[in-house]
Amino acid sequence: MPNRPVKARTGSINLDAISAELNQGRFKSVLKQVKPLLKDKAAPASVANLAAIALCGLERPRDALPMFKKALTQDPTFHDARKNLAQTLILMGQPDKALPQLDYVLAALPDHPEVLYLKAQALWSTGRLAEAETCLTSAIDLAPDQGRNYNLRALIRSAQGQEMEALTDFEAALQANPNDVEALVNISQPLARQTRHQDSQAVITQALALAPQHLGANLRQAALHIEQGDAEAARQRYRQILAHTPGQPEALEHLALLSKGEEAQALLAPLHSALKVFSRASEDRARLNFGLAHLARLRQDLQKFASHLSRANADMAGQFAYDSVADRHQTKAILQQFPLPSISSSSSSDTSQRAPTATSAHQLSNSERRAIFITGLPRSGTTLAEAVLGAHPHVAPLGERAAAGALLRPYLDAAHPFDGAAQQDFGEAYSLRLPDLPPEIQAYSDKMPENYRYIGYLIKAFPNCRILCMRRDARDIALSMWQAHFSGQALAYSYDLAAMAERFNLHAEMVAHWQRLFPEQILSVRYEDLTGDIEGESRRIAAFTGLNWYPEMMNPGAADQPILTLSATQVRQKVHQRSVGGWAKYAEMLRPFLEGLDPALWPEMRAS
Predict the structure, then answer these.
(1) Right CATH number for 327-340+364-607 from 3.90.660.20, 3.30.1360.130, 3.40.50.300, 3.40.1180.10?
(2) Distance between first and last Cα of the chain
(3) I want to staple 143 with a disulfide (CB 3.0 to 4.6 A). Which of 22, 113, 195, 551 is the partner?
(4) CB 25 within 8 Å of CB 57
(5) What is the pTM of this model?
(6) CA distance 212 to 209
(7) Is 118 within 8 Å of 83 (Cβ atoms)?
(8) pLDDT in tens, 316-344
(9) What gap in Å lies between CA 334 and CA 266, rounded to an integer?
(10) From CA 197, how far away is CA 40, in angstroms rounded?
């Protein structure tokens, strides 16, 4: 944290010299020297500020807060101290308390890029992404050469589904500083989402060359190994991380998920030790409990399995609240824009229509290629379905793309009509966000599960598209989601079993509505059928999407494309039905979900 310049002497102590020591990281020495001055009423406010910064350097932020407040009591216009207080509050996970401090400084210094950056951090942490982006745009206008402003704006834009804009910002951050390790790490996943997999690996290789022990770079390298199907390399990387940073929650969680037998149970002690360190409710504590739950399941200890999952999801729910009222309102607003009587039979397309094919005289553009949207609830088989399609030589599997949701946001509440012009604008904007595809590609898939909410918009904008709606026993989905660590607000409902049932019911209502409106462009695919008869179902999918069937579609796990979702490890296995009906063993744990599920919407509930 920057210091207020001090040129005075207090007693025999030179505050300028102490500031120099602080910049050298000699925090204990600084604290020892300024402590005697804290009781001196004649000492300047900078003394308390120096003490607070030293305490932060010693990882004692809670002890630093009274010191910052003491400095501000002495001098309310000490803007550096107020800025330092705000930054400490942000680091302590209290961004809501930091915002008033930053607004106070900005009232006096409205064009201060560093304060704007901190305010953007605080706004981002409270979920106010649009405001955070505005702050960073102002900071960039004031200081266009500061890479961290581009880096943070890229993260915020990525969180809003603005993938191309985020990539542009990451590239600007690296142009400002090609050796910015944080930017190198952060750009890796967006590059992968654009199917630039070699570039995604290259930036992490560069980051590790610059900072071999950088935690984020090592965690991303481990994730890349998983995406590429190299579980052993991922395990080895996580072990290296833990050797350097014992108790690191993310490494422990993933190593537990990747391990079996004695190796897995050997992680019990480090996981429990880490829980003592991460004793407060947080996502890190949730990670540790997810890891312990997996080990308990391997031991067939159902009681501890349920207990650890309950704790993990409770911590996640505390971080990300689910607003069921807003969710139901949004669902209603969308469906009202597509009433059943207003859609004529002419709106449907002929399912026998073939996917377009490039010729020697004409290279297909992204807007001409067939879009295949694979929708459904998370863990319903969307990744497997895309792997089946991705095994086709003329299909590009593009994974979960956030573009549709981001671009459609202005239309979801009918504030802006989704008329012909809007449909064209959306279709063009979506197509522009697709990666460059090889000339032989006839179709591409987008397997963002959440796109089930937008099926009406997608069909209007892409009349030639095909929609796969994945169906799976809701109880098996619930079990899979309850034990999976989904990070972030988008799946906040998955952290509470009753909320999960409510969201599942909304999903079923919505999908039934779309299927009545667009029966010829939507194919319902049951996970149980796909895993039980991979040849028959893959042939059915190929015919529906206007593609020739290839035998490779029966063995989707053999494909070598990186897989960027939680299902990466499972999909690389031979297609199986081991998880079908697995919920029954955990019925008591799932009781709040089972009681909330509407049997009228879920036929499997009536059959059992």
Answers:
(1) 3.40.50.300
(2) 62
(3) 113
(4) yes
(5) 0.84
(6) 6
(7) yes
(8) 998 888 999 999 999 999 999 999 865 44
(9) 50
(10) 60
